[in-house]
Amino acid sequence: MLIQDLIDSAAALVATARRHGADGADAVARASSAQSVSVRLGALEDIDRSEGVEIGLRAFVGNRSASVSTSDLSRAGMEELAMRAVAMARHAPEDEYAALAPADALANPARMPALDLADRAELSPAQLRDRAAEVEDAARAVAGVRNSEGGSAGMSRGAVALVTSTGFAAGYEGSHHSLHASVIAGEGARMQRDHALRSARHLADLPTAQEIGTLAGERAARRLDPGSPPAGRLPVVFDARVSASLVSHLFGAMAAPSLARRASFLADRRDAALFSDGIRLVEDPLRPRGPASRPFDGEGIACVPRVLVEHGRVQCWPSNVASAAQLGLPLTGHAARGSAGAPSVSATNVDLMPAEETLAAMIADIREGVLVDYLIGQGVNLVTGDYSRGAAGRRIVDGQIEGPIAGFTIAGNLVDMFAAMRVADDLECWRSINAPSIRVDGMTVATA
Prior knowledge:
- The longest helix has 17 residues, at 3-19.
- The chain is built from nine helices and 19 strands.
- 22% of the residues lie in helices and 36% in strands.
- The protein folds into two domains: 3-36 and 45-111, 2-Layer Sandwich (PmbA/TldD fold), CATH 3.30.2290.10; 226-448, no CATH class.
- It has a six-stranded antiparallel β-sheet with strand order 3-2-1-4-5-6. The protein has a five-stranded mixed beta barrel with strand order 7-14-15-16-19.
- It is of the alpha+beta class.
- α1 crosses α2 (75-91) and α3 (125-140) runs parallel beside α4 (209-222).
- The mean pLDDT is 96.
């Protein structure tokens, strides 16, 4: 479905809601298609293809609102949807902060940048199968790999349009290509598994299947015969593979909706220095071909590059309309909108900027520590900042990375961890949130 068709459908739904008594409304329409092929031990295991169109409506009656969605874009289907949304809104609880973005804050559709998010390359199921087989073959060729959980290749396309009764109407499209392999090294009680995944907007930006498969195999083989780390308060180095999770926790705590609910450990620290002076966190939603790039947010606000953290302090609290109104913050273009439900807040190409020292230089003075490249569980409390997760990785001894370790936990508090954070120079920008390797001294390491 063309973007203009999605815009027309969303505009018709908003007009229908207004006709049924809504004081204001917005609608988001989406069309998507995806296909993937997976193989295991060289044999075809699964072919999956999906296509869908969905439209969601949020209707306001005074300070009350309700949202509903449907995949029925017929005139009768949207008429019934609009009637139901307005009826639900009339009985919803009042919310003094919920509203549409004001007209003077909306992005100008005529001035939206070209972000090159949609790749026109098409891959047939046979080509996807060949790529899936190639990535698995590369992983299985690594010495020590004995079995496979499979390789897969996929591609998807999508388009989204947003229309509001305050005058906004625009859309954009995008694509994704991906490769994945998961293999097992060793046999019997020695078995260790690991994987590698990469995705990109354009096929040309994706590493080769050989590179991704080899990485998966090497990761699994490197885990063989793990030992246990020493227990105590030690330096912990988060490998670039997992370090972005710390930035994700930070972004979640910075999000204005979390602050408004006082569900963030930063609720009483908005003016505090959280990091050392050299830590810098930036965001660029307008990065060409960026994994999370977009010209406007889920409420029609223009997305712009921002500095999120500088000189040790948060510079921007990501907001949507409701949280900005509640906390007296500016609109930042971070609203995320599903087909139904109120807008949330999401990150768009957030990068923790690297330092100049290498990982080797950053760990050179560590007499005893751990390098974590695998995290297990969800033991993070964003209300208190308490952090405790299972981990695996490698031991650091006298400034050198030694053999594999597993079966241990790392614990601390995110406030203390951020204050102690140091970064290396190995940043790679292919996810929506990216970070180089991170060193945090004084974490509690305990064996299971």
